[in-house]
Protein 1
Amino acid sequence: MLYGVFSDIHSNLEALNAVLDAFESAKVEGYICAGDLVGYGPEPNAVLERIRELKNCQVICGNHDLAVIGRLDVEWFNAYARSAALWTRNVLTSDSRAYLESLTAKLDAKDFTLAHGTPRKPAEEYLMTAHTFRENISRVHVWPLIVGHSHMPHCFRINVEGQVEDIDLLDHQVVEMGRAAYGTMPIVFNPGSVGQPRDHDPRASCALFDSGKGTWRSLRLSYDIAAVQAKMRSNGLPEYLALRLAYGQ
């Protein structure tokens, strides 16, 4: 099955629309969303409505989603993230809140394992080092593991020598999942962030995962950043959060 994979939308409707348009053009058969649907950006309800409309979409929540519905203490966030989370909490509709409350931060599916951060600490821990990858291997029953949270398109995988390969994923880069006698070699993919990339590339980041062929293709997509910034400013969200969109930080 060909999946469109995305994460960390953060209430950025323009970026989400660009990603979903690309998925439609690619004729994806299903969707995988690794959490943090809201937070930071100006249109949480519209973003949630679009995601709820998707067919065959497997979605989990992230730490910002949990903070917005009061299941994670916003005091763990920096001042900018905390301000945006509290603003989002105030504008969220009852339907949007109910949808976020229905999500878990980890999902074991037939073709993949999905966690916002890591399988060990689904909502909080970042999977950004080979050491953390190795520590979480025993907690994954179906490969690949797909995560979000870091806002960085990335891959860790075990090669045939048993070493961890650490790969920064570039636009249109394709990575093949390794096979062994016992099954798929351990591998984790991060599609990067739709709504707030942090790898110094401001374009929306996402991926196509073909579970039949065992391939992952990273994608970067341009969108109207200025329009999002204007909406953030008109809603009184922190200026820093608006400015960083233009720099991919």
Note: Residues 13-25 form the longest helix (13 residues).
Protein 2
Amino acid sequence: MTPATSGRRAPDPVDAARRKLRGGPLARSFFGRVLNPKQVVQAVRLQMGRKRHRHTYDDAQLALYAQILPSEFLHFGYFDDPERKPEDVSLNDLTRAQHRYAELLLEHVVDRAHPALDVGCGMGGLSRMLRDRGFPVAALTPDRLQAAHVQRVLPDVPVLRTKLERLVPEEHAQKYGTVITSESLQYLKLDQALPIIDKILRPGGKWVACDFFHNRPTSDRSLHVWDEFVAGATGAGWKLTYERDVTPHIMPTLRFLHMCAVRLGMPLMQFAFLRLRRKQPGLHHLLTGVFEQLEGVAASNIEIIDPARFAADKRYVLLVLERA
């Protein structure tokens, strides 16, 4: 009996494809959120608050780095051999480089009678080394997860969960013999931070900093411009007593990360998109614009860690500042 005489309509291939799309777990998840008013409102809130939480999401890439490297450090490390090729770098090499970086900072911490303040303590690696070497130390971070981690693994180290700019200087007046800003100086608002550091440091105390700087003025305000920083610090009564450009020594880490992103990250992401197109062509079609944006964001992030561009635009400096 033919479909025409049986009273049943022939299957519509388009309708069948739609049912298959609706039945896929990815499709159900996608449409479940798009058609849910609560999810739409939450998406709008997240979008509107993206600038407010920018540093939180910037720190996500550092958190990923910390998961790859179990050293409790969130910085790029220091290679004694700046010509080390990325293909020859292992995860153990990166861990050693991170410890070597911390050792360079600790060479400038001499006051054992008064606490050192580890500003932007990350996962607590530097605080741990200070404690293990007999230095009293307090850790400061505005990040809830970092603060909880440090409190858990270093229960004897006081943790201040706040931004340095929100610290009440009267409660910490002349308390610290050393203030350390390791890759956290870039986040500080200098007009607010400099007076606070001045008040919480003891007479003769040291401010040890190691961070990125722009070489020249730029519209990108995520980092301080070197000349502007020096002028602002000296104008506020600080004197640079030690300065060392360590840019060449972080390049092996940048080259390694750039190699991983180019050879692994982007190809794996593109492979995932192609696999989705084969498995869920309808959903892939709906998300094509999203995929293009993701690839653009990934390409931009890869460009940021491009070693040649970094060396041309930025410098990484270890410095010690004292009151003039």
Note: Residues 1-7, 53-58 have pLDDT under 50 and may be disordered.
